[in-house]
Design a protein that fits this description.
Elements (H helix, E strand, L loop, with lengths): L4 E6 L2 H9 L8 E4 L6 E4 L1 H4 L9 H7 L4 E4 L2 H15 L6 E5 L2 E5 L10 H16 L3 E6 L2 H10 L5 E3 L5 H5 L14 H9 L5 H6 L2 H8 L2 H10 L17 E12 L2 H22 L1 E12 L4 E12 L2 H15 L7 E13 L8 H20 L9 H12 L11
The structure holds magnesium ion.
Magnesium ion (MG) binds next to strand 1.
């Protein structure tokens, strides 16, 4: 039996959620921005029509589209909406694998016939998501995850693309390798492919194995299979996944910096944010990852697993800073973005704190949370956070200056 895998990709997800929540934003050019340097995270299709894209700064976006409305992103709202969308998908199969906040793989192989086939299921899911949330999605259907994902990208917004096994030669192999981004092929890998004269998926599939092997090692075989459209991994069932696999925050600095005090302070702020979210979800984790993007956009990420599950900002920071000191110092380049995430999570039952001191810490923390919930985030905070906040406020007011923060 031919497999039927679907990838459901929500269209301009964050911006669409904001438009769904606020009728005043509907039909208008909207850009959801992150904190910090206020870069466009997602633009609505109305804004995209003016050329506004993810990654642009606010002034860039405004110069293209003077009527643009900037909205501060609310990740918790998007996560919550995602979970509600998952519930719809779970009506058709238990094999729903969360790929990202706005993308899921569905294995419909054994259940689609109950609903009139996979195309009928896809149409029904689209209809229900639109009716329930006012959101559009693009769906790709294929014999494996790679083809489903590539297919979903071919037709946006509100698209439905089906590529059957028998159509791989006609519809998949001629696609440029750039279309394979996001299925294991990054931009740098794509550049390497292009240098080798590999222009299409088919070229990649036909590349001499020894060359792929020499250049990419164990990944070479995978790339060849991706090129041939035969790379196949199972779709995980929803229950196999933790509801929250990891909790992370990142922040683009107001300007690139080598100032360790600034970097340290931002990292502390992010660790506190991660910790607050972990407490909200009642989870704790063992793997702390540090993410650094340098001024040349080069990316560093390293994770470290510790013996004990942790959930406090101080402990998360300690682990993240240890990675930073060990792996990133001395800094060759200014830092553009810092991020931290905690993975390997499990439910925090609350009784694990057998040591008196830890219990005390926990108590202080929950009181702090309570106050912050009542009077607004960060009413009470470790003193060290004030530096990053000052930095952030200066930047928000357009007052940031090299006189204040000189490396
Ligand atoms: Mg999307």
């Amino acid at each position: 039996m031919e497999k039927s895998i679907a990838l459901i990709d929500m269209n301009s997800y964050f911006a669409s959620v904001e438009q769904a929540c606020n009728p005043g934003l509907r039909g208008k050019p909207v850009a959801v921005c992150g904190e910090g340097r206020t870069i466009v995270v997602t633009a609505s299709y109305e804004a995209r029509a003016y050329g506004v894209k993810t990654g642009m700064t606010k002034p860039e976006a405004r110069s293209l589209c003077p009527a643009i409305i900037f909205v501060k992103g609310n990740l918790d709202k998007y996560i919550d909406t995602s979970f509600r969308i998952h519930k719809i998908m779970l009506d058709y199969t238990d094999k729903v694998e969360i790929f990202s906040i706005d993308e899921c793989f569905l294995d419909l192989t054994h259940t689609a016939h109950l609903y009139g086939g996979d195309v009928a299921v896809a149409k029904e899911i689209k209809k229900r998501i639109k009716e329930s949330f006012g959101l559009l999605c693009s769906i790709g259907i294929g014999p494996n995850k790679v083809i489903a994902k590539v297919g979903a990208k071919l037709n946006k917004p509100d698209g439905l693309t089906v590529i059957r096994k028998s159509e791989i030669a006609e519809k998949y192999l001629p696609l440029p390798v750039g279309k394979l981004q996001g299925v294991g092929v990054g931009r740098r890998i794509e550049e390497k492919f292009k240098m080798l004269g590999i222009k299409t998926a088919g070229d990649l599939g036909n590349a001499p194995p020894e060359i792929l092997d020499r250049l990419f090692g164990v990944m070479g075989k995978m790339y060849a299979q991706i090129g041939q459209g035969t790379y196949d991994t199972p779709v995980k069932s929803y229950r196999e996944q933790d509801a929250v696999k990891s909790v992370g925050h990142s922040h683009t600095l107001a300007r690139d910096t080598k100032n360790l005090q600034v970097i340290r302070s931002y990292l502390q702020m992010l660790c506190e944010k991660v910790a607050a979210r972990m407490r909200k979800y009642k989870i704790k984790g063992r793997t702390v990852a540090l993410i650094i993007r340098y001024s040349d956009f080069d990316f560093f990420a390293k994770r470290h697993t510790i013996r004990q599950h942790i959930s406090s900002g101080v402990e998360i920071f300690r682990a993240a800073w240890e990675i930073f000191e060990k792996e990133c110092l001395p800094l060759d380049l200014p830092v553009r973005l810092v991020g931290v995430s905690v993975a390997n999570v499990e439910a925090d039952a609350g009784e694990q704190y057998v040591f008196e001191e830890m219990r005390k810490k926990e108590k202080v923390q929950s009181v702090m949370d309570e106050i912050n919930n009542k009077y607004g985030a960060s009413t009470i905070k470790p003193v060290s956070l004030i530096i990053s906040e000052k930095f952030g406020i200066l930047e928000r007011c357009g007052l940031i200056s090299t006189r204040v923060w000189v490396d």
